[in-house]
Amino acid sequence: MAKRSFLIPGVDKRLLIKDSIKTMPDVTRRRFIAGGASLGALTLLTGCDVVDSSSAENMLAQISKFNDAVQAFIFNPDALAPTFPESAITKPFPFNAYYDLDDAPDVSAADWKLEVRGLVDNKKSWTLDELYKLPQVSQITRHICVEGWSAIGSWTGTPLRDFLKLIGADTRAKYVWFQCADKDGYNSPLDMRSALHPQTQMTFKYANEILPRAYGFPMKIRVPTKLGFKNPKYVVSMEVTNDYKGGYWEDQGYNSFSGS
Amino acid sequence: MASLTVTDEQVRATAAKVIQPAWVRVMHWVNALAMILMILSGWQIYNASPLFGFSFPREYTLGGWLGGGLLWHFAAMWLLMINGLAYLVTGFVTGRFRKKLFPITPSGVLHDVRAALTFKLGHDDLTVYNYVQRLLYAGIILVGVLIVLTGLGMWKPVQLHWLVMLFGDYPTARYIHFFCMAAICAFLVVHVLLALLVPKSLRAMIIGR
């Protein structure tokens, strides 16, 4: 399976996010235009350049937002992702990121704390030892990457909805927004209904072992009803919020809901 | 090749007759656009994680990168699905499928394949599809249904879990989706080639006569 890196050299992530607030980000636009040059065939067929124009970008962004709404509409909070027997687990489970494993965050368990922010009653930070004491469940589900490949893995941890209840989160809020220790500051918003899905999990173990660095030590959010990039690793904070704060890949053009 | 060329008399003889009604023509070209967008953006998505030992040349992909390809794919899918659904409903309701595509008999297909391979298959009356056409047109409709169903299953493998189960599992649906694309591309090559060889059929698909 190809593990493509989409890290774009020379592009400042913060500028990217700033741009994306208005419309689609710079990098996507540039890539659209780069792709546009190769689309002579399509231009010929339609008689107009549908690619090298911001109107095409705007149209695609609007349709992607429409697709968010469609997906939210058909999302059934009770529909469970299929689970599998242990024999079905993909070995080795792939490491996948926009950087090499050597560049993956190396989080010190002793120093790490999960920061809790936003619309919650109790904003206390949580140490790993405190989190490990919460009741945990295991599930074997299929991880589906936005690239098309998929792999079955075993994840153990605390259902996110139990934790949200524990910290007195306002579950009428729209999003839980996660920030991560990845370089360039990975982050991703999770809509509240998906956050409250019974299989959505604060994951501390992979295959019954403490989550290895490759899979997001110390904590990953496993969301089997979302594509892989909406399953943040190396999580350092969560914020319950009504604001759409964007995400690392979402800002570059991946569909924001990206539900399964 | 003589039998494939069109004489003026033949054109005049069929000129009064509407061969392709307006709804067929509109839906055909909408479908053509949607298909091309889906195929080119689909190749972009394929390239992110190829199923086989090859990638599609960048020049023939849409969107510039995976994210752009996905935006195009999930935009054009609405065009493809809505148009396709309207076509299926109209095709059944008007009886066009029944009149034009059926019956398809093995002996008829064999006869017309043989005739086609020896360049003896005429296209004098464009209102009647020969057995090779019937088989290919009916077949490509089925492939179209299959590629949409596998695509929907891959888009929503949890919400439409039953659809994925119908094809086995997620990776299998992905392979079927790919092979349907390959079948459509093969169809497209033959279809376009024959339309160019029998220009009056192309004209009928544009102006109806």
Description:
With 260 residues, chain A is an alpha+beta fold. Chain A has two domains: 13-73, no CATH class; 86-252, Sulfite Oxidase, Chain A, domain 2. Chain A is built from seven helices and ten strands. Chain A has helices at residues 13-22, 26-37, 40-46, 54-74, 128-132, 160-166, 192-195; strands at residues 113-118, 126-127, 137-144, 150-159, 175-180, 187-191, 201-206, 209-210, 220-222, 235-241. In chain A, the strands form two sheets. Chain A has a five-stranded mixed β-sheet with strand order 2-1-10-5-6. In chain A, strands 3, 4, 7, 8 and 9 form a five-stranded antiparallel β-sheet that branches. In chain A, a hairpin with a 6-residue loop joins strand 5 and strand 6 (187-191). The longest helix of chain A is centred in the N-terminal third of the chain and has 21 residues, at 54-74. The radius of gyration of chain A is 19 Å and the shape is globular. Chain A starts with 12 loop residues before the first helix and ends in a 19-residue tail after the last strand. Chain B is an all-alpha fold and 209 residues long. Chain B has a single domain (15-207), classed as Transmembrane di-heme cytochromes, Chain C (Fumarate Reductase Cytochrome B subunit). Helix content of chain B is 71%, strand content 0%. Chain B is built from nine helices and no strands. The longest helix of chain B has 28 residues, at 66-93. In chain B, 26% of the residues are buried. The mean pLDDT of chain B is 92. The A-B interface holds A 1-2, 4, 6, 28, 31-36, 38-39, 41-42, 45-46, 51, 59-61, 63-64, 67, 71, 74-76, 79-82, 142, 144-150, 224-225, 249, 252-255, 259-260 and B 33, 36-37, 40, 45-46, 48-51, 58-68, 70-72, 74-75, 78, 156-159, 161, 170-171, 174.
